[in-house]
Every structure is written in structure tokens, then in C-alpha cells.
């Protein structure tokens, strides 16, 4: 089923400069990087990673866990019958949430050469939250200083965890961005020096300043300087407002982590920090095409006119998006993949979501076949790994050895050896692309016949 | 240019029961209802409509207006050079914001037979806000009792205003829904008895309970009983968070008024109150197709299974949408009109936005021609008036006389006399429709040549 170790994937390293020539050899395995995986210790085991001065607060935090778990259970997401069965059936592999040895076996089984590691191993009982919510969960109620201490503890453990196989794990440091700026900037550099590769900020700023505020400029500058993408992740949101209605929570689950995108964009953060990269994680990408259309329309409607209210930007929103923004989409739907020419093929980074139940594990190979069988191989390579390698700085040359051992091939994904009809089937969609820029004011679908 | 008074439009009254037979006689004028217009007195003139006990508070409110105007000016929306020129050029017609005689002339000029009237006449200086923000503008800082008093004052004036030509004006009462329930329910009935036809609730609940709360059930019941649609409107949003960045405000301007939709839906309000109708106003409808897809997917993913977390619903989200929800779209874009088969043709109610600068006035006839020339006549009739007549209870028989006098015809809109090619051009889009329900997992655009 897998290609030989002498597989031709190494020629793929220069793909970026050779975009036109899609790698379509059906025996070249995919170099797959999951841009959205999760890991975390059972909460109580963070104690040794926490500075001693915070141990008493940590004991209090553990004591309040039961109430939070009961609250989480009201939502039912992890507790209806079929979900519980999933956890039982996969108990062994779920230990890969914090056991590095087990984890690599699961990645191999999925054909995933490397991964970006976010917090919350997602156990059925919600028992792997970082200390004090680590600034991501306002409901945890920690003061800023305590939140930073909790983040440091998680980050220390994560650096150890990723160091077991640094080529395959890119750890995402928790960064309570709303805390005191100097401490936040220091944690960016400390995290980078410890081997971590990206930064997760809270999607909401709670009582801190919104992300358009200039007080964050040193944080964005440090992120750009260290080449650590800044990320927001689905999952928080104002739960008390949702009244226990899972449908309400999930209807707006993508919106809260997406919101910082337009706060950064319109306040000129991407203009002032061209080296900053920003990603939205675990929220799919279905909300992005129309948002991008809407924002471009606002900007272009004032293009070049004096007195534009968008003077902080020198480019259209889509230009900043293509230069600096991406989505890490866990198990993206076929509908979302079909809209990749609007979103930007290079802006979609696939994720398995391991070990979360909403992800593709432990059936990733079958999932990939179902999702990608009729998508061009060259685009599949971008979304499954190439773009993530660039965004997070993976060493593709080293990973190629892993990919040659475990990576599924286009054949394995059911992609036809003759790609010409596949390419042709997407011609209209590709030509339409971002319809507001290509002259297709009405989508192509309404134009022909 | 216009059809004779003996025009055939009356046969259109039974359109609802005769959906298949589109009225395509090119000399039948359109019965156009703008589902989103605005009116309001210059603020200081509400004093006589306000109960005496609130006069002192009103004087304080007026005193604080300058600060609010300065804040509004920071956003630039109404104050950049081209906008100011627009206000100057249209000064005469803008008096139609509160002068009923002038208003009817402007409606006639636009070919609009009837209208749904929302607050805020939208003058350049923002000087037509209802007293105390009337519960719609949390920044106005009124306590709930004062907010209700302000709403009553506006509603009294509006009832007088609409009574000048009740067939053509459907007034939307302000309803600070978060105030004491008995007072809110009383205001629903008082508003209905005074001749008003719909209810505008704040898009955000501020310190009150979110709209999933059972405390609102008597309000929804009263709205259903009086056949007054409940509406939310773009415009509020948490401005202090936006830091004066217009792009941030407008990027999420549709989201805040849309948010109550999923709070009502998932908490079972539409299930418990099948007679309730809910509309989102002035926020376009570009955000709706993917939201609907997302919500249907959540629900259908648990369809019929035991332990579904969506047990409050007996139907799919799209079924509630088609039964009870609509959008009043001011000057919808061509892109939004092209997605009408996903949204539901019958769920889109066109609005001119008169007298707001983002609307189509005073060039509505030209605007309609540009927007609708290649859309089928039958669907155009639904979106331009039929659906609004049903949602708001307009008397189509009486309005037909007005429409025969002023309404543009399909010829005027540049719609071909032979509609067959127009219908054919939309066949693929119509067949794809809600792609998640029609089996087009990938949009049609990617499937064929």
C-alpha cells in the first residue's frame, strides 16, 4: 500500500517555486501534516510544571473542576450515547493525548507525518484542561498573572512532549495575550527558545483591550520576529449566554475565533507587521468566502477615494489574507473544499483533529479518500501538507523520510492517474474563483446553459 | 412608461396559491413593497409624545447627544466627503424622513407602493434617534422603564405618521424586549391597537436574559397572537469594542442582528410558537446560505438518534426558516440575489432603505433594472412585494391601485418578454438549490464542464 523508501517525494521540496507542475506521480506519497491536533496532560499532572507559588491556587482550581465538568455535560456534546461509545472504543489510542510513544503510533496509522499540537486532549470527561484555563477559558476566572503562570506550566510540558520527536511535533504555546505586555512578550521568546513553534491567543479579550489596540503591537512584533504564527481556536465563546443549548453554541462556534481576524485586519496590524501570520483553528472555513467578499467590497467601494475610512490599509483584505492568514480546518467538509478557489487553496491547512471525536482519527486514510478523490493531486498536496510546512516551518526534507514510510499515495486516495479530467471538472470553479474580482458578479452557476 | 390603471395586476393577488404560473405579462406593473424603510422625528420633537414624568430625563438625554454625535463622526461613515455631498444633494427629499406628504412623493418616484417603516431617518448628523435610544442603543444608558417610555413615545408618533396613509405604511413598533415582561406584552397590544404592524427588538440583550430564555415566551406569544413579526436590525453592535474602526464595525454588522435567529431557533421558540414570524433587517442576506447549511448539518447529523442534543426541535432548521423567518434586505447585492435558491426565494424581502444613503433611493428604478434584469419575473414579483405583503399583512387589493399608477413593469426593468431563456439560465442553480439537501454535496459549479 505504501511507497518504497526511495520514493520520489523529495522532488516535491521545491514545489513552492514550481507551482505549475503538479506532482501527479501516483506512487509519490503525500507528505501529510495535520495542522490541528491536540495534546494535554490530565490536569492534575501539571503540578510539577507549575511554579511553587501557584500550587495553592492550583489546588483550588482542581477543586472547582467538578462544577465545570457538570456544566460541560449539560451541553451533551461529549456525553450523548454515541459519543461515549466512541471514547470507549478508542480508549487505548486516546492515551496518545499525552503519551508521546503512543501518539506517534497513531499518527503513523493515520498516515500523518507531522502535526501542529494544540491544547485540550479532549477526553470524554474534559479532564485535560491546562491549569487555570491558561487564559483561554474566561470561565476559569484566573487573574492575568495566574493565567500566565498556567500557560507557562502547559508550555513547559508541551516543549518536553514535542522534544521527543521535534521534526514531527510543532507545539503551540498558550499565550494569554491580555496580560501585562512585557510578560507576554517574554513568554513568546521563552516559548520559542524552548522549541515551540506557534502561539495560541484567546479568541475573546474578556476584560482586556480588543485586539485592534496598539498595546498589542509589541506582541505581534515578537510573534513576527520569532516566526511564530498567532492562532485562535474554536471552543471558548460566551457559554453562560448559550443557556445549555448546544445548537446555539455550535452555530456561533466559528464566529468567536474568527472575530480577531477582522480586528487585526482593519486596524492595520497586518499592514504594520507584514511578517506576522495569523490562523483560525478548528472552526472550519465555511464562513470565510463570504466574509472575504464582504470585506473586499467594503474596501474596494472606497478604493482610492479621498477620505476613505479604511486608510489604515494599503491593500485589499484579500491581499492580506493571502499574504498572512490561513485556516487550520479539522476534517473540512466537501462543501468547504469545493470553495477553495474563493478561500485560496494555499490558505487551507488540513487537520485531523487527533484525538478529538470531531476529527478524522482513527480512520483518516478512509476519510482522505472520501474527501479528496476528485480533487486535483497538486491542490491536495498543498492542503494536506505543503502549506502547513511553510506556515509552521517544518523541515520537509526530514519529514520526507517519514512520509515515504507512512504517507498514502494518490492511488491510495482513489485519485485518477489521468488527472486531466479532474482538472477539467474544476475549470469553471477555478476561473470563477473570487467572483467579485474575476468579473463574475453573479456566480458562474447562474450564468451558463 | 407606466401601465394604465386598468392593469392586470389584480390577478396577481392569488399568486400564493398559484405559484407555478408566474405573471410574466410585460405590461403588468410590479406591486413593490420596500420591507426596509426608515422614519423618525428630529429627536427634540418627541417631547409631546413622551409622558410628562420623563421630560426631565429627556432633557438630560438631549444634552448628551453632542457627545454621541462626535463619537459617531469618528467612524466616518456619514461624514466623508462623498457622503456629505449626498446629503446636500438630497436635502429636500430627506425631509420625507418625518414629513408624510413629502415621503409619499418620494415613494411614488421610486415606484414603491408600500413600505415597512423602521426607526432612524438617518440624517447626516444622526439627529433623529428615538428618545433614550428606545432600548435599541445600549450606549444610550437608559434604565428599562425609561427605555419603554421612550419606545412608547416613538410608537405614538409613528402610529400618527402611518395613519396618514395606512395602506402604504406599515409601522414597526420599538419594543425593548428585555424590560419587565408585563410592560412589554402590554406595549405589543397597545402598538397593534394603535395601528402598527411589527415589532423591533434590540439585537443584543445587554444585561437582560438572552433570547433563549423562557421569560420571553409571553412576548413571543403576544407577537404571534397579534400577527406582528418580530424583527432585529443592523446598526447597534458593541461600538466601544470597535475602537473607531469602521471596517471592524461593518465586518460584523450583520452578525449581531442575525444572532437572535439561532438563539430563538435552537431553544425551540419557533417550535413552541409556530405563528411567530422573525426577520433580520438591513443586514443583507449574504451570511444566510452557509449559516443555514451549517445549522441543518448539525441537526441532520443527529437526526432521529436517541440522545440528540437538539431535542427541542421537531424539524430541521431550514423548515423553521421557510415557515417563520425572512430577511428584509436593503439594496441586496447581485451576489446575494444569485444565492436566492439557497436562502429561499420567498424568504428575501427587498428594501429600498429610504432615506438612508446605503439604500437605492432616489434612483430605485434604475437600481431595480440593474439588479433584476436577468432574474425571472415570477421570482422578482415575490422578492419585490408578494412576500412582504404576506409577512406584514398588507392589503394587496388596495395597493394594486397604487401599483398600477406608479409601479415599474418587467419591460421597465429590462426583463425580456420571452422569459424562457432567463428561466433556463438559472436551471442549474435552481436544481442545486440547497446543495446539502439536493444531493449536490459539492456545488454544481465544480461538477460539470
From TrEMBL, chains A, B:
Protein species of origin: Streptomyces olivaceiscleroticus
Domain (Amidohydrolase-related): residue spans on this chain: 134-394
Alphabetical UniProt keywords: Lyase
Presence of the UniProt keyword Lyase in the record: yes
High-level lineage: Bacteria, Bacillati, Actinomycetota, Actinomycetes, Kitasatosporales
Protein name: Amidohydrolase-related domain-containing protein
The keyword Repressor belongs to this UniProt entry's keyword annotation: no
Superkingdom, natural source: Bacteria
Family annotation (InterPro entries): ACMSD (IPR032465), Amidohydro-rel (IPR006680), Metal_Hydrolase (IPR032466)
Amino acid at each position: 500500500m505504501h511507497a518504497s523508501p526511495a520514493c520520489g517525494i523529495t522532488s516535491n521540496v521545491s514545489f513552492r517555486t514550481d507551482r505549475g507542475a503538479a506532482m501527479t506521480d501516483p506512487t509519490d506519497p503525500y507528505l501529510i501534516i495535520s495542522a490541528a491536533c491536540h495534546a494535554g496532560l490530565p490536569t492534575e499532572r501539571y503540578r510539577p510544571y507549575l511554579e511553587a507559588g501557584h500550587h495553592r491556587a492550583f489546588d483550588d482550581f482542581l477543586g472547582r473542576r467538578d462544577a465545570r465538568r457538570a456544566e460541560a455535560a449539560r451541553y451533551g456534546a461529549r456525553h450523548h450515547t454515541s459519543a461515549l461509545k466512541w471514547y470507549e472504543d478508542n480508549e487505548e489510542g486516546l492515551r496518545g493525548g499525552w503519551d508521546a510513544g503512543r501518539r506517534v503510533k497513531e499518527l503513523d496509522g493515520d498516515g500523518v507525518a507531522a502535526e501542529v499540537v494544540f491544547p485540550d486532549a479532549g477526553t470524554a470527561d474534559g479532564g485535560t484542561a491546562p491549569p487555570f484555563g491558561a487564559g483561554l477559558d474566561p470561565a476559569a476566572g484566573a487573574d492575568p498573572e495566574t493565567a500566565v503562570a498556567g500557560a507557562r506550566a502547559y508550555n513547559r510540558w508541551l516543549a518536553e512532549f514535542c522534544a521527543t520527536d521535534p521534526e514531527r511535533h510543532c507545539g503551540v504555546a498558550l499565550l494569554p495575550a491580555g496580560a501585562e505586555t512585557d510578560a507576554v512578550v517574554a513568554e513568546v521568546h521563552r516559548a520559542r527558545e524552548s522549541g515551540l513553534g506557534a502561539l495560541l491567543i484567546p479568541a475573546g479579550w474578556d476584560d482586556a483591550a480588543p485586539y485592534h489596540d496598539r498595546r498589542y503591537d509589541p506582541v505581534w512584533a515578537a510573534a513576527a520576529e520569532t516566526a511564530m504564527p498567532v492562532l485562535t481556536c474554536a471552543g471558548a465563546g460566551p457559554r453562560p449566554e448559550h443557556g445549555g443549548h448546544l445548537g446555539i453554541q455550535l452555530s456561533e462556534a466559528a464566529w468567536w475565533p474568527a472575530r480577531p481576524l477582522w480586528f487585526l485586519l482593519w486596524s492595520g496590524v497586518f499592514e504594520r507587521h507584514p511578517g506576522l501570520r495569523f490562523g483560525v483553528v478548528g472552526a472550519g472555513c465555511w464562513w470565510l468566502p463570504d466574509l472575504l467578499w464582504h470585506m473586499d467590497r467594503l474596501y474596494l467601494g472606497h478604493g482610492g477615494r479621498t477620505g476613505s475610512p479604511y486608510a489604515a490599509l494599503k491593500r485589499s483584505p484579500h491581499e492580506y489574507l493571502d499574504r498572512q492568514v490561513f485556516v487550520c480546518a479539522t476534517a473540512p467538509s466537501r462543501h468547504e473544499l469545493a470553495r477553495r478557489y474563493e478561500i485560496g487553496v494555499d490558505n487551507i491547512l488540513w487537520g485531523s483533529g487527533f484525538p478529538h471525536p470531531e476529527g478524522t482519527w482513527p480512520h483518516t486514510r478512509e476519510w482522505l479518500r472520501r474527501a479528496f478523490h476528485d480533487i486535483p493531486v497538486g491542490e491536495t498536496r498543498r492542503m494536506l501538507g505543503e502549506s502547513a510546512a511553510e506556515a509552521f516551518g517544518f523541515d520537509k526534507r526530514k519529514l520526507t523520510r517519514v512520509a515515504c514510510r507512512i504517507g498514502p499515495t494518490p492511488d491510495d486516495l482513489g485519485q485518477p492517474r489521468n488527472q486531466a479530467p479532474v482538472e477539467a471538472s474544476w475549470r469553471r470553479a477555478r476561473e470563477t474563483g473570487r467572483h467579485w474580482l474575476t468579473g463574475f458578479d453573479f456566480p458562474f452557476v447562474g450564468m451558463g446553459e
